[in-house]
């Protein structure tokens, strides 16, 4: 019985390893960056919406982190679409100019958010509009270029 259980367990572990994404692949790298962007954005939005306690220094640090991250994922979209399990639509590769335009818009909104954090003391009310712009930029790209 123990031998059978071991064989079944080993088979399950082996099969679960087959479906992963190579973290060093372009897809793996951009997925990691997008997850970091989402986590950071959720924390910032949470501070502005009262889900998390507002901490001006943490918000400012998070804005800088989000701004830096916003410049990274685009490097990991190869010129030709890979054959992988990407959430990106084929339009990413077919409409490169539009995709790059939305990427630059995202970068601009995160830079505006960082600029808004330079006005001290930080007040959540003053950061709501620039944060909403960041969230709108994310949504615009997802609506046009991501399979949901």
TrEMBL record:
GO terms for cellular component: periplasmic space. Coiled coil: none annotated. InterPro entries: Cyt_c/b562, Cyt_c_II, Cyt_c_prime. Residues 1-19 form the signal peptide. Keywords: Electron transport, Heme, Iron, Metal-binding, Signal, Transport. Heme c binds at residues 138, 141-142. This is Cytochrome c. It comes from Pseudomonas donghuensis. The lineage of its organism: Bacteria, Pseudomonadati, Pseudomonadota, Gammaproteobacteria, Pseudomonadales.
């Amino acid at each position: 019985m123990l031998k059978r259980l071991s064989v079944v367990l080993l088979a399950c572990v082996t099969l679960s390893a087959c479906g992963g994404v190579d973290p060093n692949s372009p897809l793996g790298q951009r997925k990691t960056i997008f997850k970091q962007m989402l986590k950071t954005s959720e924390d910032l939005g949470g501070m502005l919406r009262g889900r998390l306690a507002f901490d001006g220094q943490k918000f400012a640090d998070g804005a800088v982190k989000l701004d830096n991250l916003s410049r990274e994922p685009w490097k990991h979209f190869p010129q030709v679409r890979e054959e992988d399990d990407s959430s990106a639509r084929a339009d990413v590769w077919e409409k490169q100019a539009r995709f790059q335009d939305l990427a630059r818009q995202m970068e601009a909104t995160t830079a505006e958010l960082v600029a808004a954090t330079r006005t001290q003391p930080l007040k959540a009310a003053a950061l709501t509009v620039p944060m909403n712009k960041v969230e709108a930029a994310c949504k615009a790209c997802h609506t046009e270029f991501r399979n949901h």
